[in-house]
Every structure is written in C-alpha cells, then in structure tokens.
Design brief:
By secondary structure, the protein is mainly α. It has 2 domains: about 80 residues, no CATH class; about 35 residues, no CATH class. The chain is about 65% helix and about 0% strand. It has 6 helices and no strands. α2 crosses α3 and α2 crosses α4. The chain is elongated.
C-alpha cells in the first residue's frame, strides 16, 4: 500500500476525526457538530476523497456509539451496585470517614448529580 493511500485509509481518517474532537475538548473549546469536525478535517487534508470521508464518518460514529454504550453500562453497574460514593473521597485508607473529604455531608443523590456534570 502506498504512503498516500495508507494515510487516507478510512480508519486513519476516522482516528483523525476523533483526535480533532479530543483536541477541542482538551482546549475546552466547544466540539461543535460532526459537520465542523469534517470541515476542519477537509481544511487539513484537502485531497481527501468523499468516499473515504463517508467511510471514516461511519467508523467514527460507530466507535462513538460503542464508547457511549460502554459508558452507560459502566454507570448503570455503578449505580446498581449501590455504591454511590467514591471511596477515595468518602473514606480514608482504613475505611473510616475522611473529615477532609469535600463530599462527606453530601447525600447520594446530590453526589450523583455532581458527578454527572464532570467531563467523562
């Protein structure tokens, strides 16, 4: 496979879409929609063929869906486990309450609402 074909393989382009998304998140810049990611990708790689972009978008979206699905499963398991506290924040190494913990007096529901606002 030649260098240019390898560079523009749909999986590689999908990875570049993901990198663009993460760069924006890291910079605390709104990610925008998929269209803005594609525009930026095309700006960086003007020679991309539409068919490669279409395949890359399919791969990218499928990966996003799978990551979201896995995250939902993890959150559901965490909630159903009944352990709605973070051991490191709620207790010291020996399991006793940590008086310095910021969340010591927060109810489980308040704690959950606070956690859902953190970036994943």
């Amino acid at each position: 496979m030649s260098g240019s074909k390898q560079r523009y393989h749909p999986r590689r382009v999908a990875y570049e879409l993901w990198c663009l998304q993460e760069e924006r998140r890291d910079a605390r810049v709104p990610v925008g929609g998929l269209g803005s990611l594609i525009l930026e990708l095309r700006r960086r790689h003007p020679r991309l063929e539409q068919s490669v972009v279409d395949q890359a978008v399919d791969i990218f979206l499928n990966q996003q869906i799978e990551e979201s699905r896995a995250q939902i499963i993890r959150h559901r398991e965490w909630i159903l486990s009944g352990n709605l506290s973070l051991p490191s924040a709620r207790s010291s190494a020996d399991g006793s309450p940590n008086p310095k913990a910021r969340l010591t007096n927060v109810t489980h529901l308040e704690h959950f609402h606070e956690l859902k606002n953190y970036p994943s």
